[in-house]
Design a protein that fits this description.
Length: about 950
C-alpha cells in the first residue's frame, strides 16, 4: 500500500463538564459495543480474505492467474461472471536502446528472461542513434528464438543512452516510443507499409502495452491481476508505473518555477500539491489510448528537461493529462534501502536464491518482483559480501562469444551468511539479504542467457568457465576471453595445466611471492604415520576429510606401516574414491624390530622384539623421505598425528602477531582484528609463553615451529641422555624447555627433517631402551634429542593445536560471542581458536538434564564410517550455557571441545559417506559416547546396551 495523505481536521474541543449517566447513555454505549463487535468481525474477515489472496494464484478477481488459467468467479446460481477486465493482459512489450555492444548484451538478457518467465505476447525493440548498417548488424546477431521484432529510427540521435541521475535513471526514450506508437510506424526494418499502430499489432485502444528499460531482467511473468491488486490506490487505472524513490510528501524534484517554465499556464500539473499519484518511473504499463494521450506531452517535455530530469517526462505528462498512475512496488526493484520498492519477498521466500530459481509458492508471492535492474548491486559495508557485486554496464562486451567466460557466481553459502550471521559491521540483516538476492538473480540471469545464446551460435560447444568477477571499486574486465586484447590474465609464463593466472595487482602477493607454509602457499607437505589397525584407519579418514573441508593448501600423505597386500589394495581403492587428495606411502611394520645404530658404533643393529607402535613414526618418515613416489619436493613439511582434525587452515611464515595468552585480546581492533562471516575476530596470531623477546612464526633452515609441550615433557628428553646424545649435554635446562619441549604439529624444512632423520630413529630406540620400554613418549623425546644435536631450534606456540593440555591456549573460549553447542550440525570456529584439534585427551561436560557428554577417540567404534552406523549425538545448547555460567575457563573449554569435536567429526563422517554410500546412509545422530564403554563395532539393530541406554536418555525413539 502507498503512503496515504494526511487528512486535515480540527482538534475536538474538550468538555469541561461531567457527563451524566442515564438510560439514554447506557443504550448508546450498548449500541456502540454492538457496532464495535460487528466491525471487528468484519475487519477480521476482511483481513483473512486479504491474506488469502496475497498470491498470484488467488482466485475471484476475474483476471488471469500467473499460470495463465483464467480464474473465473461464479455467481450464486453457478453462472460464470466475467468482468470487463477478465482476460486483459499485457499484449505488447517494448523497449528502446542504441546499437552499442553493451545494449546488445542487455537486450538478449531481457529477451531471454522475459520468455523464460512465460510471456507469450509481442516484443519490440526500438533502435535509435545508429546507422542503418549498425542496426542491420545488431539485428543479425539476435537470437530469433526470442521472437523480438526490431524497428530503427535513424533520425533520432543518441548523445546519452540513460537519462536521470544517481538511482533515478531510465533508458526509456519517449521520443522513439512516440514515433513507433503514434502514426503509422515508419521505422526501418518494417514491411514499409504505412499501417496505423493498432492495426499493425491488432491492438484495441484499451489493450495494455508495457515499456521497460533495456537493461531489465525479468524474474516473474507479468500478471495484470496481481499488478492491479497491488497498485490499488487508483481505481480502474489506465497506466501503471514503478514506485519512484523521488517522492516525498508535498515535495517534487522540480521547483514551481521550473515546472512553470516547461508547462502551459493552464496545465493541471501546476495545480498539484501532492504528486503521490504520479510518483512513478519505468517500467510503465499503459493502455494504448493512455500512451497516445501522454506521449505527445512527454515528447514536448523531453526537450525542455535537462538530461538529469528526463526520467520525469512521463509522470509530468500523465499529471498534465490527469491520467492517474497506479503506482506499484513490484514492477522493478534495484535499490536496497528504498521504501517505495517492495522488497518483502526477500524475507518471505523459503528457498536459497543462490542455488535455485523461485518457483511454486515462492514465485507466487505477490511481493515477488516482475523485474530487476542490476545497475549497481553492491554493499561494500558488508565485509563478507564485499567481493560480490553486479554492475550491468560493466559486463564485458564479448560476453556472448563462444570462448568467453561467464560470471563468477556466489554459492549458497553467501545466502547463509546473509541470513544467519549477525554483522559486526552493523549492516542490517535485511540489506544483506536484499543484496545477496539481487546479485544471485543477476548473475544467474546473465549466465543462463549466455548459455542459451551460445547454444545456438557455437556449434562445437562453448566455454563454461565462470571466472568474471565483479568487485567493489575494482577494475571491470574489458574482455571475457582469456587472452584477448585487454585481458586480465598473465600470458608469461605460459599455462600448460589449469586456469590462467590473473595479472598481479600492485601490492598483492601471488603464489610465487608466498613463503612456504604461508596462507595460500602450496609449498608445504602435511604427513602423518599410522599402523594398519582399524582404529587408525578411521582416524586417518577423519583427518583427510577435515583437511579437504577447510580448504587446506598443500599436499597430504599418510604413511601406513604393516599392512598385508590385500589390506593395501583395499586401502588404495577406498582412498582413491573417498579422499583423492590423500597420498599413501606403504612401509613395513617397524613396531617390533626397528634397525638402529649405537652412538659409538657404525654397525646397524636390531632391537629385541618390542611392540611399540610409535616406532612407525620416525622409521616411516625416513622411508618416506628416502623413497616416496613421487618424491617429496615441497620445501616445508608439517608432521601431524593421525588423531588430528582441521577446523581451519594451518599456516606459518605469515608474519602474524605473536602475543602472550593475556595479550590476545589487545583491544586494538583496527590493527589486530578483521571481520569474517559477520563477526569481528582477531587476525591470525601466535600465543607464546617462552622467555625470548623477538619471536616470529618463521620456519627456515635451522628454525622450526611446533606446539609447546613443556608442561608435560619438561626437560625429560635431556635427563641421563649423554650416552645417547653427547652433543646434547651442552643444552641448558632453560634451552631444553624453550626450544625442544615440543609436540606435533612440527613445521620444519624438508632439509632439516632429512638431516636429523637418522638420529631421530636411533635416539628413539635408545631412549626407549634406556627407559625400559615403559615410557610411551620415547618417540617424542627421541625427536627432541635429534633436533638438539643438529641445532634445529623450535619456536613453540600454545595455539597450533587444541588437545586439552595444560599448555594449550584456551583463552579463546572467553572471547566467544555465540553458543558453540546451539546448532546441532554446524560448528562455530572463531578466528581465535587453534587451527587443529588434537584427540590426545578427552572432553567431558554436562547438560541441564544431568546427562554427561564425552568425546574421546578411544571410545569410538571402529566401524563408525560404515554407511549404516549412527553419527555421533550432538550435545544440547545447555552444555555451553552451564559452562559459561560457571565463568570457569576449563569448564568452557570442556564444553567447547566436546561440542566442536563431535560436530567436526560428524562433518567428516557425512563427507565420507556422501562419497562412499551411493544409495544413502544413516544420518541418525544417536551415538552418545559413554565413559569407560567401548566396543569395536556399532551393530545397528543389536546396539551395545550402554550405548542404547545413553541414546534413549538423550532422545527417546518410538511412539
Amino acid at each position: 500500500m502507498l503512503p496515504q495523505r494526511q487528512n486535515s481536521g480540527k482538534r475536538p474541543a474538550s468538555s469541561h463538564h461531567r457527563a451524566k449517566m442515564n438510560v439514554r447513555n447506557v443504550v448508546l454505549v450498548v449500541l456502540g459495543l454492538i457496532f464495535a463487535l460487528y466491525m471487528y468481525f468484519n475487519l477480521r474477515f476482511f483481513a483473512t480474505t486479504t491474506v488469502s489472496t496475497n498470491s498470484i494464484e488467488a482466485t475471484g478477481k476475474g483476471w488471469r492467474s500467473f499460470n495463465g488459467v483464467p480464474n473465473k468467479p461464479t455467481g450464486d446460481d453457478g453462472d460464470t461472471l466475467v468482468g470487463a477486465s477478465a482476460t486483459r493482459q499485457v499484449k505488447h512489450l517494448v523497449f528502446t536502446s542504441t546499437c552499442r555492444d553493451i545494449d546488445f548484451v542487455h537486450a538478449e538478457v531481457l529477451a531471454f528472461t522475459l520468455r523464460r518467465t512465460g510471456y507469450e505476447g509481442n516484443v519490440t525493440e526500438l533502435l535509435y542513434g545508429c546507422t542503418s548498417e549498425q542496426a542491420s548488424e545488431f539485428i543479425r546477431k539476435k537470437d530469433p528464438r526470442h521472437n523480438v521484432q526490431t524497428r530503427h529510427y535513424p533520425e533520432v540521435s543518441a548523445v546519452n543512452t540513460t537519462f536521470g541521475e544517481k538511482l533515478l535513471k531510465t533508458t526509456l526514450n519517449p521520443v522513439v516510443l512516440s514515433k513507433w506508437m503514434l502514426g503509422s510506424d515508419a521505422g526501418e526494418f518494417s514491411d514499409n507499409r504505412a499501417v496505423p499502430f493498432e492495426e499493425r499489432y491488432a491492438l484495441a485502444s484499451d489493450d495494455f502495452v508495457m515499456a521497460v528499460d533495456s537493461d531489465a531482467i525479468f524474474t516473474k511473468k507479468l500478471d495484470m491481476w496481481n499488478l492491479m491488486a497491488e497498485a490499488n490506490d487508483v481505481i480502474n487505472a489506465r497506466i501503471y508505473g514503478q514506485d519512484a524513490s523521488w517522492y516525498w510528501p508535498n515535495r517534487f524534484p522540480l521547483t514551481d518555477e521550473q515546472l512553470r517554465s516547461i508547462l502551459p499556464t493552464n496545465s493541471r500539473a501546476l495545480l498539484l500539491d501532492d504528486w503521490r499519484e504520479y510518483a512513478a518511473i519505468a517500467p510503465f504499463v499503459a493502455e494504448v489510448s493512455a500512451w497516445q494521450e501522454i506521449l505527445p506531452t512527454a515528447v514536448d517535455l523531453w526537450d525542455k528537461l535537462t538530461h538529469e530530469q528526463r526520467y520525469l517526462a512521463v509522470p509530468i505528462a500523465a499529471a498534465h493529462e490527469k491520467s492517474l498512475i497506479g503506482v506499484s512496488g513490484v514492477l522493478s526493484v534495484h535499490h536496497y534501502p528504498s521504501r517505495y520498492q517492495n522488497w518483502d519477498f526477500v524475507d518471505d521466500i523459503k528457498h536459497n536464491p543462490c542455488e535455485e530459481l523461485a518457483e511454486g509458492k515462492n514465485l507466487a508471492l505477490s511481493s515477488y518482483p516482475i523485474s530487476i535492474r542490476a545497475l549497481n548491486f553492491t554493499l561494500p559495508q558488508w565485509i563478507d559480501g564485499r567481493d560480490w557485486s553486479f554492475f550491468a554496464n560493466d559486463v564485458p562486451l564479448d560476453f556472448f562469444s563462444c570462448d568467453a567466460w561467464m560470471m563468477h557466481q556466489p554459492t549458497g553459502y553467501l545466502w547463509q551468511l546473509a541470513t544467519h550471521t549477525n554483522g559486526y559491521e552493523r549492516v542490517p540483516n535485511i540489506l544483506r539479504r536484499r543484496h545477496t538476492m539481487s546479485v544471485c538473480l543477476a548473475m544467474e540471469a546473465y549466465n543462463s542467457a549466455s548459455e542459451n545464446y551460445r547454444s545456438r551460435v557455437c556449434p562445437t560447444g562453448f566455454n563454461h568457465n565462470r571466472r568474471i568477477p565483479m568487485e567493489f571499486e575494482k577494475k571491470a574486465w574489458s574482455t571475457a576471453v582469456a587472452l584477448a586484447q585487454g585481458t586480465e590474465m598473465e600470458e608469461d609464463p605460459s599455462v600448460y595445466f589449469g586456469d590462467y593466472k590473473r595479472k598481479k595487482a600492485l601490492g598483492v602477493s601471488d603464489q610465487n611471492d608466498l613463503k612456504p607454509g604461508q596462507e595460500g602457499s602450496e609449498e608445504l607437505h602435511f604427513v602423518f604415520t599410522t599402523s594398519c589397525d582399524a582404529y587408525q584407519d578411521w582416524q586417518s579418514e577423519a583427518l583427510a576429510q577435515s583437511f579437504a573441508r577447510v580448504g587446506q593448501r598443500g599436499a597430504l600423505t599418510r604413511i601406513v606401516s604393516g599392512c598385508s597386500d590385500d589390506a593395501v589394495k583395499e586401502l588404495l581403492r577406498r582412498t582413491q574414491k573417498s579422499s583423492p587428495h590423500l597420498r599413501i606411502h606403504v612401509t613395513r611394520d617397524f613396531r617390533s624390530l626397528p634397525i638402529f645404530k649405537e652412538v659409538s658404533d657404525d654397525v646397524e643393529k636390531a632391537s629385541t622384539p618390542d611392540d611399540y607402535a610409535p616406532y612407525n613414526k620416525p622409521f616411516g618418515l625416513r622411508d618416506w623421505l628416502d623413497s616416496a613416489n613421487p618424491p617429496v619436493r615441497e620445501e616445508l613439511v608439517v608432521v601431524l598425528d593421525p588423531d588430528f582434525l582441521f577446523i581451519r587452515p594451518f599456516a606459518v611464515n605469515t608474519g602474524g602477531r605473536v602475543t602472550t595468552a593475556k595479550g590476545v585480546d589487545s583491544g586494538n581492533y583496527e590493527r589486530d582484528a578483521e571481520v569474517v562471516e559477520g563477526m569481528r575476530q582477531y587476525k591470525r596470531f601466535f600465543v607464546y609463553a617462552g622467555t625470548r623477546d623477538n619471536v616470529s612464526d618463521t620456519v627456515a633452515d635451522g628454525v622450526a615451529v611446533a606446539q609447546r609441550w613443556s608442561e608435560y615433557l619438561g626437560t625429560a628428553a635431556f635427563e641421563n641422555s649423554t650416552s645417547i646424545c653427547p652433543e646434547c649435554a651442552k643444552v641448558s635446562k632453560i634451552d631444553a624447555s624453550e626450544y625442544y619441549a615440543v609436540g606435533p604439529p612440527y613445521a620444519i624444512t624438508r632439509k632439516d627433517l632429512t638431516k636429523l632423520m637418522d638420529d631421530y630413529c636411533n635416539m628413539t630406540v635408545l631412549k626407549r631402551e634406556q627407559m625400559k620400554r615403559e615410557h610411551w613418549m620415547s618417540e617424542m623425546l627421541g625427536y627432541s634429542l635429534a633436533a638438539a644435536k643438529h641445532n634445529v631450534k623450535h619456536t613453540t606456540f600454545d595455539n597450533l593445536a587444541l588437545g586439552n593440555k595444560a599448555d594449550d591456549y584456551s583463552g579463546f573460549v572467553s572471547l566467544m560471542k555465540g553458543n558453540p553447542c546451539e546448532d546441532p550440525i554446524k560448528p562455530i570456529i572463531p578466528g581465535e581458536a587453534p587451527p587443529l584439534l588434537h584427540g590426545c585427551h578427552s572432553y567431558e561436560s554436562d547438560d541441564d538434564r544431568g546427562l554427561k557428554w564425552m568425546f574421546y577417540k578411544n571410545l569410538i567404534p571402529n566401524n563408525i564410517f560404515a554407511c549404516d552406523s549412527w553419527l555421533l549425538a550432538s550435545p544440547p545448547a545447555s552444555v555451553w550455557t552451564l559452562a559459561k555460567r560457571s565463568r570457569n575457563t576449563q569448564n568452557m573449554l570442556e564444553a567447547y571441545g566436546v561440542c566442536t569435536s563431535i560436530k567436526v567429526f560428524n562433518q567428516a563422517l557425512v563427507d565420507f559417506k556422501t562419497k562412499m554410500c551411493p544409495n544413502g546412509f544413516n544420518q541418525n545422530r544417536r551415538l552418545r559416547l559413554v565413559k569407560d564403554v567401548r566396543q569395536d563395532l556399532l551393530k545397528v539393530g543389536k546396539v551395545h546396551q550402554a550405548w542404547q541406554d545413553a541414546a534413549q536418555e538423550n532422545a527417546r525413539e518410538g511412539a
